[in-house]
Amino acid sequence: ESQILWYVEVHCISGILEAAPSNEFTQHGVCLAKLPDFGSLAMSKAVLAALENYHCGRDLICLSSILSVLNTTNVLKSLPQNMKSSGGDFMTLLNIMNDVLLVKQSVPTDQFDLDRFCKTTGLDCIRHIIKQALDRYTSLEKAFHSSSNYRQEAQIRSGNWKYVAKSLLAGYSDNVFVSMKDLQEKTHQYGRYKDTTDLAILDLQSTL
């Protein structure tokens, strides 16, 4: 019973359920329930924001597809320089997804050669990641196509970091960190925005 009460309390705080005694879905919760499974509440919120508010639904669906299979930032250092975006790591990953989907969707399904794409673009080092991300994206694409909910919105892309970032913040606002350089003159340390005593060190493989 205590676990159930905790679950209800967490989802009330998250804006998904109404407070007791109703415990019904809020409008936000109803909308989230219409989405395919994105693996986490945070990512679902980010995707919903992209679909409803920032007109970059396809961008977030692509990004979530590759993030869901990426468990280390080490692969970023092995990417060709021309594949890296000045917009940072998220835009680099989004650009990779856009590039591979552009090629994949421009030829008949049975003619797409992922090995050739990876060799041509210098992405051999992450071929296995791209393969998994493509499978994940295809699954999500089918889910949206077979549903009347957000079918059109899921096809809209902006390629604009500003809107991608705002969408991500809708789901991951608790993970916002600010540089401690001006506060404590610690160049590579960042404090959580909601609690600057909670510190993190920048992964040197990352590009902000």
Compose a concise summary of this entry:
With 208 residues, this protein is mainly α.
Could you explain the architecture of this structure?
The chain has two domains: 33 residues, no CATH class; 137 residues, no CATH class. By secondary structure, the protein is mainly alpha-helical. The chain is 49% helix and 7% strand. The N terminus is likely disordered. The chain is built from nine helices and three strands; from the N terminus they run H-H-H-H-H-H-H-H-E-H-E-E. The radius of gyration is 19 Å and the shape is flat. Helix 3 crosses helix 8, helix 4 crosses helix 5 and helix 4 crosses helix 7. Strands 1-2-3 form a three-stranded antiparallel beta sheet.
Features:
mainly alpha; 2 domains; 9 helices; 49% helix
Question: What's the SSE blueprint?
Answer:
Elements: H1 2-13, H2 27-33, H3 41-52, H4 57-67, H5 89-104, H6 114-121, H7 127-145, H8 161-172, E1 177-179, H9 181-184, E2 189-192, E3 195-201
Antiparallel strand pairs: 1-2, 2-3
